Amino acid sequence: MSKILDLIKKDSIFEGESNRLLMLLRSLLLLFIPYTCSVGLSLLLHRLMVHALAAFAFALLFLVFFIRSYKVRPPQTCLFTTILCYFYAYYFSTTLGWHFSFYMLFLVGFFLFWFDSSMSIKKKSLISAVTGLLLCFVCMMSPQITAILEPGSAAYAYLTYSNLVFCILFLSVIASFFCLQFVEAERQLYLYNKELKRISETDPLTKLPNRRFALEELKEIEAGYESNDRFVSIAIGDIDFFKRVNDSYGHDAGDYILSSLSGLLNEEMKEHGMVARWGGEEFLFVFDHANGDDSFLLLDTLREKIEHTEYTFGGQRIAITMTFGVEEYGPRVGIDPTIAAADKKLYLGKNSGRNKVVY
Predict the structure, then answer these.
(1) Which domain holds residue 111?
(2) For the chain, which residues score pLDDT lower than 50?
């Protein structure tokens, strides 16, 4: 079974061709071969030699098309397989009769064309119209045919029901490929949109959430805030004398400091809430389930850790400090005024010596 699957899944030798279409065609061709052979055997047992040989000839052609699928472009294989289905359906419908359901193979070929993404809608519509005309023609021709198999006989029953079963199987295989392709396209679209959303909400340098994401999170907090069982505090932190870092060591060093510091801030805030890049060298901190006093203590511990951390860039050691302003959020005040209050306290800390937390 694994070897058969390997044969079906083998990629096209032509670049840019649809491997999914190729897998579908090979799957159907492998089903057509035993199907047409079984029809041939049934006719042979009832001494209908000409029709039996025709069925075996079709089986051989299906086998040839399967082998050729490794050397021919998938759209061409699709075209040849569909035409062969039409000839098969036409021949046996007009020689054995409409009641054996050979005409259903027209539908198999019809759906194969619609699965081929390389064909234009105009061509597919034209083929659909031709398929409809062929079905009408076969429908008009079939009632005039004298039955060559006795109704109620084993051969009659076998051809009637086996054709129905096999045609439903063929259509189910095509439908499953359609479904899988649709699901895969939906999954890829979901992943693509998810990645776009992540990119739109992430600061490219620091890999922290950006200002847009932070504001959306704050809106959700504001909408679901319950003063009885929840405390939320907001803080803004700013790197002290960051311009000196850029002027003394270069902007690459400044970017390195921002990136490295962001990793530290993100690690420290994992258990307490969220940190986002607010803009430039400013960061926004949201402490969920922490009042102003608790947030002050957490920030002061973080401030000391930053003060005692050294960064090495280009062989030079760089030390930085940060100043923070923190404000406890209340539903009567609102998010924007809370941020403004934290920002005001930040600048109070800046003007009174820096490297401190103001609450």
Answers:
(1) 2-197
(2) none
